[in-house]
Amino acid sequence: MSQPRKRIGLLFGGRSAEHEVSKLSAANVLRALDPDRYDIVPIGIGRDGRWLLCDSGNGGGRGAKSLEIPEGSPQVALLPGGAGEMIVLNGDAGSTTLRLDAVVPVLHGPNGEDGTVQGLLELANIPYVGSGVMGSAAGMDKDVAKRLLRDSGLPVVPFLTLTPRTRVDYQKAADTLGTSDLFVKPANMGSSVGVSRASSPDEFAKACDRAFSYDSKVLVERSVTGAREIECSVLEDAAGEIKASPLGEIVPAGSHGFYSYDAKYIDADGALLRIPAELNPDQARRIQELAAETFKTLGCEGLARVDFFVDPQNESSLFVNEVNTLPGFTAISMYPKLWEAGGLPQSELMEVLIGHAIARHERRNRLALV
C-alpha cells in the first residue's frame, strides 16, 4: 500500500540581494522533488518580506528555469506551535488553513540563511531542511565562522574585521595582513555579492564602500595568489551520519579574476567546473576530512558546502574559505553536481534531506521540556 504524499512547503525568494538566485535554485529543487511522493506548495517571500502562496505551476511548473511570485498571490503565515498549520489570507473571501508536513527553505543570504527563518520554523514546530538557528547564524557570519574555525585549529586565511567605526586605510590593512593584494567582502552575504579585490588605496576605499552598502560588518582577507578554489558538499542523513562528496574545482574564466557573482550567474562562460578536482588521493581525503570537521565545528546540520583555497605554490597548504549552509541549487550549482558525481542524483538527495529534517524534528520533540 502506497504512503500518502507529504505536503512540502518550498520557500524561495526572500529579502536579500540573492533573491533572484533563490528563484533559480527553487525551480531546480521543484524538479528534483518526486511528485508521486510530495505535494509541493511553493511559497514565495517577496522583497518586502511577505510570504505569498504561489501556484504550483508558476513560471511554467517543472520546466521553469526560475520560479516567480505572481502579483496578487494570497498572503500566508505559519502559526506558532501549529505543527505546520498555515493561515491563507484570501482577501475579501476570508481565510482558510493549509497544513504542511515539512518545509524546504531555498533561501540564500540574510533573512533566510542566517537563522531568522529557521527560528520561525522552530516556533511553528515543523520539520525543515538544513541547519538550525545556531549553525545557520554561525555559517552566515564570516567573521564569527572564521573565529570559531581558527580557535578550533582549522586553517583559515588571515583576516581583519571592520565596522563603520573601526575602518582602517589600505596601508594599515596591507601591513597587518602582510600583503598588498586584498579581498574585501560583506560579513553576511553569499554568492560573492559585494566582494571586491583591492591592491591600491583607491581600490580599497571603493571596495570597503561597496561592502558596507550590504552589511555593517566587513571582512578584509589576505589574497592567496593564484589559489585553486576547491569545493566539497557535506550531507547528513536521518541517522546523523555525515558524508563528504567528491571534490570539485572552480576555475574562473574570461575576464573574471575570481569567482564573482557575474561569473557564477550572469556570464555563461564565467567559470569552468572541474568534477572531480585534480588532486592526489591524500590531499583529496584531507580536504574531505576538513569539510566534515568544519561542518561539525560550526554546528551545521543536514547540508552545507564547504569551500577551500589551495596554495598552488605549496599544495599541502590549504585554507577553509567559507561555509554555505543553504548552497545554491541551480542547474549549474556545485552542491548537487558534486553529489551527482558521487552517485546520488538530485531526487535521491532531496529524499535524504527531507528524511533528515523529519527525523531531527521527531528527536527534538522527544526532548524533555521541564
Task: Kindly describe this structure.
The protein contains 10 helices and 16 strands. By secondary structure, it is of the alpha+beta class. The protein folds into 3 domains: 6-128, 3-Layer(aba) Sandwich (Rossmann fold); 138-155 and 226-362, D-amino Acid Aminotransferase, Chain A, domain 1, CATH 3.30.470.20; 159-222, ATP-grasp fold, A domain (Dna Ligase, domain 1), CATH 3.30.1490.20. The strands form 4 sheets. A 5-stranded antiparallel β-sheet has the order 14-13-12-15-16. A hairpin with a 6-residue loop joins strand 4 (75-78) and strand 5. It starts with 5 loop residues before the first strand and ends in a 5-residue tail after the last helix. 45% of the residues are buried. The model has no long low-confidence stretch (mean pLDDT 91).
* Proportion of residues in β-strands: 25-35%
Helix content: 25-40%
Contiguous runs where pLDDT drops below 50 for at least 5 residues: none
Radius of gyration: 21 Å
Globally, the shape reads globular
In summary, what is this structure?
A five-stranded antiparallel β-sheet has the order 14-13-12-15-16. Strands 3-2-1-7 form a four-stranded mixed β-sheet. Strands 8-11-9-10 form a four-stranded antiparallel β-sheet, covered by helices on one side. With 370 residues, it is an alpha+beta fold.
Characteristic terms for this protein:
3 domains, five-stranded antiparallel beta sheet, Rossmann fold
List the helices and strands and how they pair.
Blueprint: E1 6-13, H1 19-32, E2 38-45, E3 51-53, E4 75-78, E5 85-89, E6 95-99, E7 102-105, H2 116-124, H3 133-140, H4 142-151, E8 159-162, H5 170-177, E9 182-186, E10 196-198, H6 201-212, E11 218-222, E12 228-236, E13 242-252, H7 261-266, E14 271-274, H8 281-297, E15 303-310, E16 318-324, H9 334-341, H10 346-365
Parallel strand pairs: 1-2, 1-7
Antiparallel strand pairs: 2-3, 4-5, 5-6, 8-11, 9-10, 9-11, 12-13, 12-15, 13-14, 15-16
